[in-house]
Amino acid sequence: MDEANIRKYAKLMREEDLSGLEITEDGVTVRLERAVAENVIQVPQAAAAAPAAAAEKSESTDDSSYVTSPMVGVAYLAPTENSDPYVKLGDKVKAGDILCIVEAMKLMNMIQTEIDGTIAEICITDGQVVEYGTKLFRIER
After folding, report:
1. Residue 106's closest CA among 38, 47, 40?
2. What is d(CA 137, CA 110) in angstroms, rounded to the nearest whole number?
3. Would residue 127 count as lying in a domain?
4. Cα separation, 60 vs 62, whole angstroms
């Protein structure tokens, strides 16, 4: 499938307000997903067939917000298997800090925070499969 077709399907997804689309053409299957969220962050990706956007949706309570998964995938708390996690309970974070990675279709999507605060809760475990909207972290302002 060529880039022009992928762009055509991405446009169709926007027009029809679809969050996912899977197309099989000439024996090749391509799945496009997009986060339909209030806050969308563009994350640079390694060379990929289709550019993707990662998103962070924050569900706010009084003085804390939940960072939720913008897609279905596997969440990793650290950049590699034997390295320290991006954040730990009690860490201070600033807008733009990486919290974790969600791997979807062999693409590593960095999940960043949009607010300054303290990590109050880590809602997932390393290597956990997450769905769209799964709570990942709670950040207290």
Report:
1. 47
2. 14
3. yes
4. 7
Tell me, yes or no, whether 126 lies in a domain.
yes
Q: 3-state DSSP: the chain helix, strand, coil percent, rounded to 5?
A: 10, 40, 50
**Which structural domain, as residue segments, surrounds residue 105?**
35-140
CATH number of the domain bearing residue 89: 2.40.50.100
d(C-alpha 32, C-alpha 49), whole Å = 11
Return the C-alpha torsion angle 5, 10, 11, 15, nearest 10: 140
* CA angle, 33 then 117 then 66, to 5°: 40
Q: Mind listing the pLDDT tens digit of every residue in the chain (141 residues)?
A: 677 877 887 788 777 777 777 778 777 777 777 764 444 444 444 433 333 333 344 455 567 899 999 999 999 999 988 899 999 999 999 999 999 999 998 889 999 999 999 999 999 999 999 999 999 999 999
Listed residue (40, 62, 52, 61) closest to 114, CA to CA: 40
Total domain count, the chain:
1
- State the pTM of this model: 0.57
**In this structure, is residue 92 part of a structural domain?**
yes
26 within a domain of the structure (yes/no) = no
